[in-house]
Write a structure and sequence with these properties.
InterPro entries: GH (IPR017853), Glyco_hydro_1 (IPR001360), Glyco_hydro_1_AS (IPR018120), Glyco_hydro_1_beta-glucosidase (IPR017736)
EC number: 3.2.1.21
Enzyme class: hydrolase
Bound molecules: 5-hydroxymethyl-3,4-dihydroxypiperidine
Helix content: 25-40%
Number of domains: 1
Number of strands: 15
Radius of gyration: 21 Å
Protein name: Beta-glucosidase
Strand content: 15-25%
Largest sheet: 8 strands, parallel, barrel
CATH superfamily: Glycosidases
Shape: globular
CATH architecture: Alpha-Beta Barrel
GO cellular component, one term: cytosol
Strand order of the largest sheet: 1-2-3-4-5-7-12-13
Length: about 450
């Protein structure tokens, strides 16, 4: 296997998000989020799970900070719950919510761990959705910028890296078109509005952050996925090019080039939101760094029955069992192909086509079936190997001039994996959800050794 050789100063960390770990659903004046509501609707989440308790980090974050210190993490990516800070999403501020994040960040800094703070990881205040339409309306962008200013107003003196949005594609597409994520809408107009208004919200928030803290580094985390044709047929190649626009370029092009990608944008003309003359300038002058969330590639087929786009990503070959190797290809427990070369391809493309921005890999990792053995260990060799392969290609990308500066494992902890509930475990630390006991998995111990080894060099 390729060795892991990372540039000097490269940060190694781990990531989580508020709804997936905090619990404390109604604690200290927190308002409900769309995920609190959605996860309690019958049949929405596997096994009837929800984030009411999750990893219980609202009650106790110190245990996990101690683990992070033991592993030697340079940085920790966390998200702020908007309804914890502003229960109705606008107007009234819940000081106790802000106090929580202040304590958490102070504890991280005391442990020598740099906080990377995401402002929106999908848990929109429910009131904002119900009364104001959330990001499906233009004013959602302004509410988001106001909320960002509140958080940065309190924490901006100790946080240097801010990530406005996590995976706006997922939020817009699954939440507003597929309906399998909160807020559960199935409406192509809402999908495109949520897309544009998130980008606009990102741009407005970035400007507010810079006005408050000119030295702050502002980024956005995009889920990027190389889209490859499933076969060399021309129809599949065209389908893959369109899928690339739909997932990757729909966000990269406005952020770096100031326009939406054609022909995808043209195909959607019936559903497009109003884009005002200044919007693209606000969106495209907004980034100090790009956050890349990478898990796998998509293999795309032409599919004439799919409306508008006529394409579909290939699903697992019938013979494959999740978590196993089929026809020489390894799959994670999510059924996602293990494909580290895709991360290299993406990083190199950012250099070639998007001006080589500073990049942090803000998520990368895999779910596998983990078992705590009688001797209290979790032997997750598949995850260790997944992480090692992706770190190796990250180092290789840096050697060919990609400006990649850090890497965050998804995730520090096993946590609430959205529609899948708690049964998909991504952590390098195992969580027993009944007792809240933590066990550092072998992958976590290995990651700690890697960090120690890097420090010595
Ligand atoms: O758990 C999610 C995370 O919230 C966003 N990115 C992908 C992860 C794994 O599915």
């Amino acid at each position: 296997m390729m060795p892991i050789d990372l540039p000097p100063g490269f940060l190694l960390g781990a990531a989580t998000s508020a709804y997936q770990i905090e619990g404390g659903r109604d604690a200290d004046g927190k308002g409900p989020s769309i995920w609190d509501h959605f996860s309690h609707r019958r049949g929405r989440i596997r096994h009837g799970h929800n984030g009411d308790h999750a990893c219980d980090t609202y009650r106790d974050f110190q245990t996990d900070i101690d683990i992070m210190r033991q592993l030697g993490l340079d940085a920790y990516r966390l998200s702020v719950s908007w309804p914890r800070v502003m229960p109705e999403g606008r107007g009234r501020v819940n000081e106790k919510g802000l106090d929580y994040y202040e304590r958490l960040i102070d504890a991280l800094l005391a442990a020598g761990i740099a906080p990377f703070v995401t402002l929106f990881h999908w848990d929109l205040p429910l009131a904002l959705h119900r009364e104001r339409g959330g990001f499906a309306r233009r004013e959602g962008a302004e509410h988001f910028a106001d909320y960002a200013a509140v958080v940065v107003g309190r924490l901006g003196d100790r946080v240097s890296h801010w990530i406005t949005l996590n995976e706006p594609w997922v939020y817009a597409t699954f939440g507003h078109m597929a309906g399998n994520h909160a807020p559960g809408r199935r409406n192509p107009w809402a999908y495109l509005r949520a897309t544009h208004h998130q980008l606009l919200g990102h741009g407005l928030a970035a400007a507010r952050i810079k006005a408050l803290r000119p030295a702050a580094q502002v980024g956005i985390s995009l889920n990027l996925t190389p889209a490859h044709p499933a076969t060399p047929r021309a129809a599949d190649r065209q389908a893959a090019a369109l899928a690339d626009q739909m997932v990757n370029r729909l966000f990269l092009d406005p952020l770096f080039h100031g326009h939406y990608p054609e022909p995808y944008w043209g195909k959607l003309r019936l559903f497009r939101p109003t884009v005002r003359p200044d919007d693209m300038a606000i969106i495209s002058n907004s980034l100090d760094f790009l956050g890349v969330n990478y898990y796998t590639r998509a293999r795309v087929r032409h599919h004439r029955l799919v409306p508008l786009v006529q394409l579909w990503p290939e699903t697992l070959p019938a013979v494959a069992t999740e978590g196993q190797v089929a026809a020489g290809v390894e799959y994670s427990r999510m059924g996602w192909e293990v494909y580290p070369a895709g991360l290299f391809e993406l990083l190199f493309r950012l250099k070639k086509e998007y001006g080589n921005p500073p990049v942090y890999i803000t998520e990368n990792g895999a779910a596998f079936d983990d078992v705590v053995t009688a001797d209290g260990r979790v032997h997750d060799e598949q995850r260790r190997s997944y992480l090692a392969q992706h770190l190796a290609v990250t180092g290789a990308a840096a050697r060919v001039g990609v400006d990649v500066r850090g890497y965050f494992v998804w995730s520090l902890l096993d946590n609430f994996e959205w529609t899948y509930g708690y049964n998909k475990r991504f952590g390098i630390v195992h969580v027993d959800f009944a007792s809240q006991r933590r066990t550092i998995k072998d992958s976590g111990l290995w990651y700690g050794e890697l960090i120690r080894g890097k420090r010595k060099n």
